Amino acid sequence: MKKLSARRRHPLAALVVLLLALACTGGLYAAFAPADKAQADETAQSLAIDEGKKLYSVGCASCHGTDGQGTTDGPSLVGVGAAAVDFQVGTGRMPAQQPGAQVPRKKNIYSQAEIDQLAAYVASLGAGPTVPTKEQYGPEGADIAKGGDLFRTNCAQCHNFTGKGGALTHGKYAPTLEGVDPKHIYEAMETGPQNMPSFPDGTLSEQNKKDIIAYLNAVNGEESESRGGLELGGIGPVAEGLFGWIFGLGTLIAIAVWVAARTAKAKKS
User: Transmembrane region positions (predicted)?
Assistant: First the structure.
């Protein structure tokens, strides 16, 4: 009996009990805490959708339908995703002031919180591209040279070689990309607004989009503004040199012909 009592009062027994208690506490926290967080996120998302629906009913339903199904005045929003809403409303294109060949960019009338709520509601109508994170469009890890190649191959036909924009047919145009938020450029490539085709990840990968945005930032950033000179839309040194050669040399030839003609006329008289 004395030996049994000694074993029960072993100095390590208290430590073992403490460790077991800590393990149980940690297990219970791990089991219930994630569920609480997930439930909180779900509640917040539900509230955002409800608020977004209220905003939609006031500012969007007249053109896009009460349930986003579309009308003769506006396309369906089912499946366009949150990225399309963030781009269209964030750039002020929506709500549109008036119908036309193309809806121009203008000052937006919603706060970012309201835009997020509208995006949450429209996303609930059908799966679509999500709003990108800063890691997706930020400059970290981007290849500017690769972005230039990709931009000239896929975008320059409409937006010009440095994103200055250009005219299209029937009153439409490719807008300038100078001063546009990188997030909105990414979203435009994802969703293909108005006359622009979409470039999903299967066509242009996430890294490709990041590279293109880095290229546009490089050619339209503060450093490019300090170079001076007439850039002729940023077409490039070959085209600009040809312009100078033709018009500069042509002007000199014209002056030379005029001087020669005046000299010959003076000699005759």
Answer: 242-261
Tokens of 159: 């937006």
Q: CA-CA distance, 212 to 190, in Å (whole number)?
A: 13
Global pTM? 0.72
24 is in an annotated binding site: no
Domain range list for the chain: 36-131, 132-225
Dist. CA 39–CA 62, nearest whole Å? 34
Query: Which option is the CATH number for 132-225: 1.10.760.10, 1.10.287.180, 3.40.710.10, 3.90.1150.10?
Result: 1.10.760.10
Cα–Cα distance between 130 and 111 in angstroms, integer? 19
- Check residue 17 and give left, alpha or beta (phi > 0: left; psi -120 to 50: alpha): alpha
63 is in an annotated binding site: yes
> How do residues 225-263 score in pLDDT, each as one tens digit?
545 555 655 555 555 666 677 777 888 888 988 888 878
Instruction: List Cβ neighbours of 43 (8 Å cut-off, separation of 6 or more).
Output: none
Place of tokens 């970290």: 140
Q: Is 60 annotated as a binding residue?
A: yes
| CATH number of this structure's domain 36-131 | 1.10.760.10
